[in-house]
Design a protein that fits this description.
Bound molecules: pyridoxal-5'-phosphate
Low-confidence stretches: 1-6
Strand order of the largest sheet: 1-7-6-5-4-2-3
Strand content: 5-15%
Structural class: alpha/beta
Number of helices: 17
Largest sheet: 7 strands, mixed
Distance between the termini: 46 Å
Helix content: 40-55%
Number of strands: 11
Shape: globular
Radius of gyration: 25 Å
Amino acid sequence: MDESSSEWCEIPGRLDLSPESLREFAHGAVDWMVDYLTGLGHDPSGLVQPLEPARSIFDRFDEPLPEEGLSPARALEEFRTTVVPFATHLQHPGNLGYIPNSSGIVGIVADLLASTLNQNVSLVRGGASAAAIEAEVVRWLQSLLGFPEPGGGVLTSGGSVANLMGLALARERMGGGEGLRFYVSEQTHSSIERALRFLGVPGEAMRTVGVDEGLRMRPDALQKAIRSDRASGLRPTAVVATAGTIGSGAVDPLVALAEVSREEGLWLHVDGAYGALAAAAPSGAWMRAGLASADSLSLDPHKWLFVPIDTSCLLVRDPDFLRRLFNVVPEYLKVSAAEQQDVHQPMQHTIELSRRFRALRLWMALKTYGARSIRSKIEEHLALARMLASWVEAEPGFELAAPVETSTVAFRYGSPGLASGEASDERNERIFDCLSRRPGLFVSRNRLRGRFTLRACITHLRTTESDVRRFWDACREEASRLGGESC
Ligand SMILES: *Cc1c(COP(=O)(O)O)cnc(C)c1O
């Protein structure tokens, strides 16, 4: 490829692009992409996470601002040789950590197309088809989960932002002010506390309600807390339920919590960032009635619908109320009646103004996969989790740390056998550290009821039974190491 920067530079005044060299550059990137995606899945011995310490990786990227430009071909080469080797390969099928993110090729290519078209999905005039497609995929997501019509919603960058918006709606419904109370459980995701802080709600406004033996919020405890707060002159505002906790994939009893919320006049926000999409599958369909009773519901297609990160959704029962919250329109963003017709402007639904065309990935992915194959893929994940749970239960020395309701299996080794809780925690933490260093696996840590737990979460497009088997064999192997033996 020609390296002279004059041919390549896109800066105005030096614009001299040849379509051939543009194509060669882009094809080079696509070739890398296909090699990466097809090579990775076949390599259980490949490291998911680089072993090099973070500090030294940061030190590698410490160059001064380049004064003169490189050719794009050289930049692509640097990406290959310096970026990729120190990346975390979350696309690897051995990714069972946190809530695994994975993207199929359709969502990846859709991103390239979306960036090329570069729509600004704030006003319809920034991209009419993009705005219409966003409204369409939101309806498709509602339909996938049986979320009641009409309802509505908006795509967001992540579950944290969707949760923030859901809580902002709850506060708005109360008209703000002092003494607000938001009811969570000990398993509620940290994004809820962060959202409340961001909304300027004081710390004591977050009230933790007790859980049952399956780590699910107790409706009776909730009702009691609400009544006692009200009796003290406080203003119970919202119940924040979770459909699929990070720790064990637990699903709060949504229907019962909705009943309490309705009786007591509280907003019900359901954080389904991880687990709501389980309701698309036959064996997760029991969650649908609960999800349908939410006033606001967050879900993360970037966790369980095989599209790239930055694809999340907030669904609401009352889109008019959502639009009232964001109804600030300066003169320069006004749209004439003739232009407005009966469509809504995307900016009316969200705090963002300039927004990329993130709906395209979902639109293309849902079109090409079809709902049927998505349902069966999610079903497969739920079945893999039940299979892993059955192995854990059958293995002497291991025990489940919580029931398996979605696709997360939380467990530990040796708890009854080891003399103290601390000894058991130490042992499990060592197993976790050893698992983390293994090739072909990516795991994450947690504690449940104060005790260290091992966990696997299965939402990855490419994870199969053999990957789960590999993980489980590794757990047993690490557990069988003698006392001080290092990994
Ligand atoms: C992932 C997750 C979040 C946060 O979502 P992001 O997309 O990472 O911002 C919130 N709640 C739950 C239960 C989650 O699993």
